Amino acid sequence: MIAWGGLKGSLSIALILSISPAFEGRDLLLAMTFSNVVFSLLVQGTTLSKLVSLLKVK
To answer: What percentage of the chain exceeds 90 in pLDDT?
Structure first.
């Protein structure tokens, strides 16, 4: 449950944005990281309450 609820995103996006714009794969990495963060927020964030009730955590 901790891994499912660990909505991490700001650090990974900050790290990708800190890469030099001259880096060849920066845009691809940024798109992949942003997609992962959006997935984490939308899917994992909205299903966390269902997971808590499924596991019967108080």
So the answer is: 40
